[in-house]
């Protein structure tokens, strides 16, 4: 679960498995909120994007994130 209590802007949260596939998306999360944003399953990564970017870039549960230079 992720919270946005210390974030002053709305975000899109991508809940991603270890292989980069997106398990779920929490779009347009409210800023400064104590409400937990949860994935539909256990995940390895939670990249954050500015609110609206998942819709603009057509990112969803059929998407895969490619991570590079994680050393």
Describe this structure as you would to a colleague.
The chain is mainly beta. Helices cover 6% and strands 24% of the residues. A three-stranded antiparallel sheet has the order 2-1-3. A hairpin with a 5-residue loop joins strand 1 (11-16) and strand 2. The chain starts with 10 loop residues before the first strand and ends in a 15-residue tail after the last helix. The model has no long low-confidence stretch (mean pLDDT 92).
pLDDT under 50 segments (min length 5)?
none
Spatial order of strands in the largest sheet: 2-1-3
- The helix tally amounts to 1
Name the beta content range: 15-25%
Q: What sort of overall outline do the alpha carbons produce when their principal axes are compared?
A: globular
Count of DSSP strands: 3
Integer-rounded radius of gyration? 12 Å
Helical proportion? under 10%
What is the succession of H and E elements? EEEH
Q: Given the helix and strand composition, which structural class is it?
A: mainly beta
Instruction: Give the rounded overall mean pLDDT.
Output: 92
The largest sheet is: 3 strands, antiparallel
End-to-end Cα distance? 25 Å
């Amino acid at each position: 679960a992720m919270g946005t209590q210390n974030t002053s802007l709305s975000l899109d949260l991508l809940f991603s498995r270890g292989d980069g596939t997106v398990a779920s998306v929490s779009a347009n999360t409210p800023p400064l909120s104590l409400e937990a944003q949860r994935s539909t399953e256990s995940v390895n990564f939670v990249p954050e994007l500015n609110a609206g970017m998942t819709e603009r870039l057509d990112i969803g549960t059929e998407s895969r994130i490619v991570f590079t230079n994680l050393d």
